Amino acid sequence: MSARTSKPHEIVERALALSRADGCVVIADEHSTANLRWAGNALTTNGVTRGRTLTVIATVDGKEGTASGVVSRSAVTADELEPLVRAAEAAARGAGPAEDAQPLVADVPAAPDFTDAPAETSSAVFADFAPALGEAFARARAGGRELYGFANHEMVSTYLGTSTGLRLRHDQPTGTLELNAKSPDRTRSAWAGRSTRDFKDVDPAALDAELAVRLGWAERRVELPAGRYETLLPPTAVADLLIYQLWSSSGRDAVEGRTVFSEPGGGTRVGERLSQLPLTLRSDPHEPGLETAPFVVAHSSGGDQSVFDNGLPVHATDWIREGELRHLTTTRHSAALTGLPVAPAGGNLLLTGGQDRSLQEMVAGTGRGLLLTCLWYIREVDPATLLLTGLTRDGVYLVENGEVTGEVNNFRFNESPVDLLGRATEAGRTEKTLPREWSDWFTRAAMPPLRVPDFNMSSVSRGV
């Protein structure tokens, strides 16, 4: 019998039993996906996949410290299980002492469903969505526009076992929808995306109607030069910027003077006010609709994650509270080095504290400015200020006297999300959103639209 046909918890237990190392962590990830793709108002492909990835982390104690070895493989058969464990042990014995070494986590209550079968997705997740998508195709065709895009649903059941007795389990559903509408001559394009756990809260008709309005706005074209403009950032753009900020909020890097969160002369900016708006940026594994694993799952060490922290409980954390920087990301090791509290990076991100106003209401309150659709190709320019550059895409619109009056050309921007929080003059209603740039890595976000009075459009871009 192959390991793939064995129950995941049995594979974890067998790998732990085979271990001869001083410590061992085993992670079994059971994953399944279902997807739909379409182009020109017609479904093109659909499919379902299944798989398993097994990661073995061996730790070996020595006179100079504890070393770790990590080996991950897919489709491991029963005959390959012991060689996998031995490979992790050999990797640990061949490595030097791990800088991030800590005692393996212990004394965490076992998951009551640890021995249950993994959760799986299938094409049934699209039972209501697919017919509604077909109706959207018909409306788009009748309205003279073409719809392109894809819907993907993934379910990952993670089983974590350790030689210290941890037996933890988490099921993570992840759904993404990206829909692009184009004019028949392909000169006008509009995009919308959604993050979902089960596709029951996604309405293709509403998205198509939104895109139809945006294509209508684009019938009038206005050329604008580079410069600083009052700009309304929609939730998806805010998410892309603040996710990068979270990824750049290493407590250790800040203490060592390498980031925007470093205090000149030493220390960090924790306790400093970053925004005059009462904004709170937080992660919470139990946030309804955005649930993530309530414990650390680390397949490798690096940055602000450590394999020694596997199983460590993850709690709700305010990174910024009412405008004030409160926490930076740390492992147990980096927390001990810096004196900062232990704060693992979360699997979701929320910005709250704005007014109960929709993006449309913020448009209505704009004298003259720009309305963005999304950002693209975001790259870091300067870590000391967290200056980022990137492009606008699929619709930049001119707002005049509270109304959208046309589409303008795309731009390259140069901005720091930390600076943007400090300069933002208005935040609207927080809503679930899909980050477009980072959707392959980070999908669970809730953000408000932001008004920035002087967003830096550094040059004109000729992309669609």
Fold and architecture overview:
There is one protein chain. The chain has two domains: 3-214, PmbA/TldD fold (2-Layer Sandwich), CATH 3.30.2290; 220-464, no CATH class. Helix content is 20%, strand content 38%. It contains nine helices and 20 strands. The strands form three sheets. It has a six-stranded antiparallel beta sheet with strand order 3-2-1-4-5-6. Strands 11-10-9-12-19-18 form a six-stranded mixed beta sheet, covered by helices on one side. α3 runs parallel beside α4. The longest helix is centred in the N-terminal third of the chain and has 16 residues, at 78-93. The termini are far apart.
In short:
The protein has 464 residues and is an alpha+beta fold. It is 20% helix and 38% strand.
Low-pLDDT parts are none
Rg, Å, rounded: 24 Å
The fraction of residues in strands falls at 35-45%
Neighbour order of strands in the largest sheet:
3-2-1-4-5-6
Describe the protein's topology.
Blueprint: H1 8-18, E1 23-39, E2 42-62, E3 65-74, H2 78-93, H3 129-142, E4 146-162, E5 167-182, E6 189-196, H4 204-217, E7 221-222, E8 227-233, H5 235-247, H6 251-255, E9 280-283, E10 317-321, E11 324-325, H7 332-338, E12 349-352, H8 359-364, E13 368-382, E14 387-400, E15 403-408, E16 410-415, H9 417-423, E17 426-427, E18 431-433, E19 445-447, E20 450-461
Parallel strand pairs: 7-15, 8-13, 12-19
Antiparallel strand pairs: 1-2, 1-4, 2-3, 4-5, 5-6, 8-20, 9-10, 9-12, 10-11, 13-14, 14-15, 14-16, 16-20, 17-20, 18-19
Descriptors:
single chain; 2 domains; alpha+beta; six-stranded mixed β-sheet; 20 strands
